[in-house]
Specification:
The complex is a heterodimer. Helix content of chain A is 72%, strand content 9%. Chain A is an alpha/beta fold. In chain A, strands 1-2-3-4 form a 4-stranded mixed β-sheet. Chain A has 2 domains: 6-100, STAS domain (Transcription Regulator spoIIAA); 139-377, no CATH class. In chain A, a hairpin with a 3-residue loop joins strand 1 and strand 2. Chain B starts with a strand and ends with a helix. In chain B, the strands form 2 sheets. Chain B has a 6-stranded mixed β-sheet. A 3-stranded antiparallel β-sheet of chain B has the order 2-1-4, with helices on one face. Chain B has 10 helices and 9 strands. Chain B is globular and about 55 Å long. In chain B, helix 9 (237-244) packs across helix 10 (246-257). In chain B, 41% of the residues lie in helices and 24% in strands. In chain B, strand 6 (164-168), helix 6 (176-193) and strand 7 (196-200) form a beta-alpha-beta unit. Chain B is an alpha/beta fold. The chains are: A alpha/beta, B alpha/beta. The A-B interface holds A 25-27, 29-30, 33, 60-62, 65, 69, 89, 92-93, 95-97, 100-105, 107-109, 343-344, 346 and B 96, 99, 101, 108, 112-115, 118, 120-126, 128-129, 134-135, 137-138, 142, 158, 160-161, 188-189, 191-194.
Chain lengths: 379, 258
């Protein structure tokens, strides 16, 4: 049914004939292209080239484009192309392709050298980061303004969404936070006991678990879990509202989206993250206690006594003190990412991912800063 | 030759769970014609399109496209058949991670071994064919307006020079000027490329401007197929309301003046 496309050339008095036959379609275009390249490179004698197309059985845009491009190449070599015998059913197609053939834009591919491309990407990323920090600081300001308004007239504080977000971000996170911190507490105790035993210092396992958990791991783990659970949820919720223009609808109805959406979420996290951290600390210590009981036969009573000796109030206080700051960071990043969503569903996904990456990054940076601060003030 | 059916649907039944969308539906699309599918919301116009191209599985009945029954073909033969039609989805459904030119080239890259330069030039040709400015070729779908996205989607649908073109509400969401321009473009391309067009639409102006025949979907089947005149002659209440209602009258008048 289909016929292999082909062409041959014949010398005539005034130049030569180009005789095409078969199916000139997109499927054979690549093969034809190579042969045509060779032809137009070799032939340039005479004054006229006649394209005899009466044996072309099928023609599509790619085929028409090939013929027309070959003709254009001959004509740039000084020959006058002429087309003959094209079947009537292909004539409109051929004319349409002729009318639309032209150079392709040089912007299709990035032609810059690789080094420039890499530098440009780094530069773009730096600028974007700068812009991001600016935006976030701006949002913090907007949040504080709205919070101040709520303090002045408490009616503006939306209690129902606040409780709702406390439940979703705090209460609902309990099982996962408990499970993970219990396991990590147990693992730290087990690994610590293993190492300390070599020095005969395995009694200090309790100190290790208590200090590392209360100061660092408890809050860090909780903040990371919450960033993954709630920061992303904030970004996705606000983002999809932004996408469906619900935020704009709010503004036109005289409702302040910052007051309605952002303040309750940030406050909810500020209130629940310390509570979660407290529970995380307890569960971590519990995990440690169970492990040392099993591995080292340290009974819970002894564990508690050692715990009191090892950890003072500030060991515990340092961990808890970080929680509200991390909560503000996570919630603001989530809300800010949500508000940055533009029209498409794709951008909701993008911003949600971004919110998790950024908030976990910022949580760890904050933790490092706090570590430096607490060392400096000596607690 | 003129009566050769390129799409032949017989006794089609589609259903989602207990919800029957089509029951005993028959439809023929002839070679080289533009067939418009109309029907109220929820009568399954888009579902019919999706079923014909194999995105939905029919519960019963036969669908024959270009002389073959897609559901009975093996993977390879079905892919070969799929390359003989092009589909324009409602909002273009362009791949958002690729530029317009790369969207057009997807089929070349996947199915044909073609030198890079040739793909670029063919993509540029398609972009021009659908009436987009050439600098749109290097843009991403998110940088285009709705009308441009539809044209870009059309360029991608035409990449492999299909024999059948399926269009799902091509003028929905376009302003009247953009919609009229799209109708003209569609008619021109259909004539130039010899396409058979299966067109799902709500737009009466599109029906008048582009369609050779119209099929009306109601009561889970095609209740009438024919020209505009046949539609006007029918006394089915939905058809009467659709074609003789205020919008139908004004579309007819506009066509008469043009």
């Amino acid at each position: 049914m289909s016929q292999t496309p082909n062409f041959r050339t014949e010398e005539t008095g005034s130049g030569f004939m180009f005789l095409a036959s078969g199916d000139w379609t997109v499927r054979q275009a690549a093969a034809l292209d190579t042969a045509l390249e060779e032809l137009s490179a070799a032939r340039a004698r005479g004054a006229e080239v006649v394209f005899d197309l009466k044996n072309v059985t099928r023609l599509d845009t790619a085929g028409a484009w090939l013929i027309d491009r070959t003709a254009a190449r001959f004509s740039s070599q000084g020959l006058t192309p002429r087309f003959e015998g094209l079947r009537s059913e292909f004539q409109t197609l051929f004319a349409t392709v002729q009318a639309n053939r032209g150079a392709c834009p040089d912007t299709l591919h990035d032609m810059r050298p690789l080094a420039v491309q890499i530098t440009a990407r780094i530069g773009d990323a730096m600028l974007a980061t700068g812009e991001e920090v600016r935006g976030l600081v701006g949002y913090f300001g907007v949040f504080l303004q709205a919070l101040w308004r709520a303090v002045k007239s408490p009616r503006r504080l939306r209690l129902v969404p606040l409780i709702h977000h406390m439940e979703k971000a705090g209460f609902d996170a309990l099982p996962i936070v408990c499970l993970i911190t219990f396991l990590i507490g147990a693992v730290i105790a087990q690994q610590g006991a293993e190492q300390l035993k070599r020095f005969g210092a395995d009694v200090y396992t309790v100190n290790l678990v208590a200090i590392i958990f209360l100061r660092e791991v408890g809050i860090l783990l909780t903040a990371i879990i919450v960033a993954g659970r709630s920061g992303s949820a904030f970004a996705a919720e606000i983002g999809s509202m932004k996408m469906r223009e619900e935020i704009d609808a709010m503004r036109t109805l005289g409702l302040d989206p910052v007051e309605m959406l952002i303040v309750p979420r940030v406050l909810a996290l500020v209130l629940t993250l310390p509570l979660l951290t407290f529970i995380a600390d307890i569960m971590g210590l519990l995990g440690g206690a169970v492990t040392v009981w099993m591995l080292l036969d340290t009974t819970p009573g002894v564990f508690l006594v050692r715990l009191q000796e090892a950890a003072g109030f500030w060991t515990f206080g340092v961990g808890l003190l970080k929680a509200p700051f991390m909560a503000i960071t996570i919630a603001l990043i989530g809300c800010h990412c949500g508000m940055k969503v533009t029209g498409s569903a794709e951008s909701v996904g993008q911003q949600t991912t971004q919110s998790v990456v950024k908030s976990i990054f910022m949580v760890i940076i904050l933790d490092a800063l706090f570590a430096m601060f607490f060392t400096a003030v000596g607690i | 030759m003129q009566d050769e059916a390129v799409i032949d649907v017989r006794g089609l039944r589609t259903q989602f769970g207990d919800h029957v969308v089509h029951e005993n539906l028959d439809l023929k699309v002839r070679k080289g014609e533009v067939l418009g599918i109309v029907g109220g919301s929820g009568t399954g116009k888009s579902v019919l399109l999706r079923t014909i191209v194999g995105l939905n599985r029919p519960a019963a009945g036969h669908i024959n496209v270009l002389g073959e029954e897609p559901s009975e073909l093996n993977e390879e033969a079905r892919q070969a058949l799929e390359q003989r039609w092009g589909i324009l989805f409602q909002d273009g459904a362009l791949f958002s991670a690729l530029t317009v030119a790369e969207n057009v080239q997807v089929a070349y890259r996947e199915h044909l071994h073609m030198p890079e330069e040739m793909m670029d030039e063919l993509a540029a040709l398609k972009v021009r064919l659908v009436g987009l400015p050439i600098d749109a070729a290097s843009k991403y779908p998110s940088e285009l307006s709705g009308g441009m996205r539809k044209r870009a989607g059309l360029a991608r649908a035409l990449a492999l020079d299909p024999e059948i073109l399926f269009l799902d509400e091509p003028t929905a969401g376009l302003d009247p000027i953009g919609a009229a321009a799209f109708d003209r473009l569609l008619k021109e391309l259909q004539q130039a490329l010899g396409l058979t067009v299966f067109l799902v639409t709500h737009d009466l102006d599109t029906l008048y401007a582009t369609c050779d025949r119209i099929a009306v979907l109601a009561d889970k089947r095609v209740i009438l197929t024919g020209t505009i005149e046949d539609m006007m002659a029918s006394d089915h209440p939905w058809i009467t309301e659709y074609f003789k209602g205020p919008r139908g009258r004004s579309a007819r008048k506009a066509q008469g003046q043009a």
